[in-house]
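User: Last request for today: this protein with zinc ion, please.
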Amino acid sequence: MDNSGVHPDKAPDNQYIRICSECDLVHHHVPVARGQTAYCKRCGKTLYRGHSYALERSLAFAVCGLAFFAVANVAPLLIFSMQGNSNANLLIDGGLEFLKTDYWFLGLLVLFASVIAPFLLLCVIILMVAPVLMGRAPVVSGALFRAYARLRPWAMGEIFIIGIIVAYVKLSDFADVFVGTALFGFMGMVISSVLALLYLDPRELWLRIEANRS
Ligand SMILES: [Zn+2]
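Assistant: Here's the final one, the structure of the complex with zinc ion:
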């Protein structure tokens, strides 16, 4: 399955096509029933699956991800205690601290990849999927698909979690460090986002949009 584009490719005979990501063999898109999987004819790689209520699941996980996002941004992330002084940091504090220094561009990058992009991606998924499930075909669907394709590579929450764990291990050598509720909220958001993306098949969504339009 070609994940690089979000709009289903149309062959000259007006049939949608699927391109194997392993061997580039072009297949006509054949709708599969829930629970079934379409494989490449040449190499056997999975092309796409017919998930049960895939779009509904994607929407549910995206909403769930937003709830976790709120927890991740309101609650403290790491709490430091050294020589009687205690200090709690929020998720956005890392990026904001960089903005005050000569490394402001790095701060912008951290804020975008850890806070802004994951939030926008979840919002875009909800705005893309919810109207379609209600039988509508919004005129902004194309713009939302393009935003989805651009945001997806930037949502790197899982890498940020590794960074937090590394910071926790390093700092615990010379200070008492406690993990705040935000870390669990952030991990919940990352897991919810991964599942929302797993169940979101842009081609299936686009086919539903076209069906709603007709
Ligand atoms: Zn193949």
